[in-house]
Amino acid sequence: MNHRSTRDVVVDLQKHGRLIEITDPVSPHLEMAEIQRRVYERGGPALLFSNVVGSRFPMASNLFGSLEQARFLFRKTIDRVRRAIELKIDPTALFKNPFRYASAPWTAWSMLPKPVRSGPVLAHSLPLSELPQLVSWPRDGGAFVTLPQVLSMGIETSLMKANLGMYRIQLSGNVYEKDREIGLHYQLHRGIGVHHQAAMAAGKPFRVTITVGGTPAMTLAAVMPLPEGLSELTFAGALAGHRIPMVTHPSHAPIYADADFMITGTIDPERTKPEGPFGDHLGYYANVHEFPLMRVERVSHRPGAIWPFTVVGRPPQEDTTFGELIHELTGDVIPTVLPGVKGVHAVDAAGVHPLLLAIGSERYTPYRRPDRPQELLTQANAILGQGQLSLAKYLWIANQIDAPELDIHDIASFFQHMLERVDWSRDLHFQTRTTMDTLDYSGEGFNQGSKVVIAATGAKKRSLLQDATQIPKLPDTVLSAKLALPGVVALQVRQGLSLRSLAESLDESWESQSGEGVPLLVLTEDCEFASKSLKNWLWVTFTRSNPAIDIDGVHAFTDFKHWGCRGPLVIDARIKPHHAPPLVEDPDVSAKVDAMAARGGPLSQFL
Predict the structure, then answer these.
(1) Which among 19, 65, 178, 601 has the fewest CB atoms less than 10 Å away?
(2) Cβ neighbours, 10 Å, residue 15
(3) CA of residue 548 relative to chain centroid, distance
(4) pLDDT tens profile 240-250
(5) Which runs of E-coded beta strand occur in 305-393?
(6) End-to-end CA distance of the chain
(7) Strands (E), 213-349
């Protein structure tokens, strides 16, 4: 199936029993989002809302509801893309096995964007306010586009230099002028920023087009972490199986001709406006901040248009599939970009950017096995110098030579391997007062925070505590303690107790012999919740802590500006006053969806 529109996708999924149509009236204000979250959580099918309250357009969600369904959508092209990536890694493979790569010329041709004069998306104009107004969380500042394809050129003229990204778009609310203004939220290390800067420096209008729908390849390409200067349209064409048609004209940014919906306009060169709040993928609200303002010049849609959407929130959500599929397609490229690095895993359950796991290799002195990280630190710095990977707060990197079978996606086993070997007196390497993810409010300010590299190599140093009844004796300030993972204890302490005070009390009371099996303590408000599952522990620990401020340890010391500790490391993952509030459903909407489930029908099993 060569999908050219969202309707093509819906028909394809429905034909194969992968989609449920909901004909009951459903509001895009909170109700659809609640339904989508429940259906995704229960492994349900794609959804078509054909009776949308307040809108004449159908809406579709959960199109990427699982990795298996994403593979299905791209079933005609995904193997071709894999083979193209194989040739990128090893061009000589073409000569070794020419029949395997017979599709390579066609794939290369499809990667060239196709300039056109018009397209279906320009068929019908409409006011901005008539677009579907999706509101996902109770405190959201207005309606947002959650699967936007944002296209920009800056001062470039070649489509091969076009940037395609997924930056959230606020359609209404706050102080945006109705039908004339929208908010464009883009963050650090996004390609659109390069174009914006170039246009401002040249004194030229910065034109942007936002499209929604069309081939699902455009949606996936918009989140693809390609090298700067390489257009995501090339990847979209390869995955779509056809050249991406783009309407070009000096008066506007390129317009994706096959999209379902289109908004085009110009970024105001002098003004910003408050954007947000918005329930985001870390599981908290992104607060209100000044972001670029787009003056809308035209809004249009194709015949039979369907509005695709997703809902973001505490992971996993539907956008988890994007990361899984991208890793599946491109994971083998990592060693060609980062020599010695065998793999990198941005952990979805921890909000993606807060936590990176990596496997490197100590290769330089095979005649003398190092007793401490050496090349691993070089590789860690290289990882943190790569685009959006630079936004990570925690990078844990292991040595492949210590455990060749180590699986970077088996998170529990990875942490066990690291905690059995780590030496907190030498293996912590901080970067302070640096940048961090815009959506992460654990730092000292907007886009401000710190990082820590935890690099461990060598033989196993300790056996980790696995029996919760054997947790070492703790000071009276600790109200409760739960074993979260082997060697990791979640603590709940007396209200108002500072991290330093806790560390000092542990200095006095920690029994070194019995405590050797517990190298990591995590301070939380609710140790029962944090220890209930690996996902809970990852989310609490790494979204609610800023390494330079929230890490302390038993018997801590500073030696020539190197900080370490000789006892357990302590991470303060309590909620602080400056943190953004977590996402919570509206109870009235939840009750309404519960009632929908009680009525029965094909959807009820997923609600």
Answers:
(1) 178
(2) 10
(3) 23
(4) 999 999 999 98
(5) 307-308, 343-346, 355-360
(6) 30
(7) 245-249, 252-256, 261-275, 278-279, 285-286, 289-301, 307-308, 343-346
528 pLDDT band, cuts 50/70/90, is very high
Position of tokens 């992971």? 315
Contact 522, 541 (CB under 8 A): yes
Indicate the residue type of 132: P
String of DSSP letters for 114-154: EEES--GGGSEE--GGGS---B-STT-SS-EESS-EEEE-T
pLDDT at 453 over 60: yes
Task: Indicate if the pLDDT at residue 512 is higher than 70.
Answer: no
CA distance 556 to 202: 52
**Is the Cα dihedral 233, 234, 236, 237 positive or negative?**
positive
The pair of structure tokens assigned to 519 is 């190298």
Res 117 pLDDT > 60: yes
What confidence tier does 331 reach under pLDDT thresholds 50, 70, 90? Answer: confident
Q: Can you read off the two tokens belonging to residue 437?
A: 């993810």
Rounded CA gap, 3 and 88, in Å?
26
* C-beta neighbour count of 363 within 10 angstroms: 14
Separation CA 204–CA 475 (nearest Å): 64
Q: With beta carbons less than 8 A apart as the criterion, state whether 450 and 393 touch.
A: yes
Phi, psi for residue 431 in degrees, rounded to 5: -120, 120
Phi, psi for 559 (deg, rounded to 5): -135, 110
How many Å apart are CA 406 and CA 427, to the nearest integer? 19
Q: CA angle, 543 as apex, 541 and 544 as ends, to 5°?
A: 70
Give the closest residue to 482 by CA, choosing from 442, 433, 518, 535. Answer: 518
- Residue 275: alpha-carbon gap to chain centroid: 20
Q: Are strands 114-116 and 245-249 parallel, antiparallel or unpaired?
A: parallel
Say what the pLDDT of residue 232 is.
92
Distance CA 579, CA 590 (A): 26
167-435-520 Cα angle (round to 5): 110
The answer to whether residue 511 scores a pLDDT higher than 70 is no
Residue 383's Cβ-count burial label (10 Å; 0-12, 13-18, 19+) is buried
Q: What is the pLDDT of residues 150-162, one digit of tens each?
A: 999 888 888 998 8
Residue 309 in tokens? 């959407």
pLDDT at 25: 96
Q: Alpha-carbon distance 512 to 473, whole Å?
A: 11
**Residue 293 forms beta bridges with which residues?**
183
- Tell me how crowded residue 471 is: count the other CB atoms within 10 A of its CB: 18
DSSP classification of residue 334? H
pTM of full prediction above 0.85: yes
Confidence grade of residue 175 (pLDDT, cut at 50, 70, 90): very high
Measured CA to CA, the distance from residue 332 to residue 320 in angstroms comes to 19
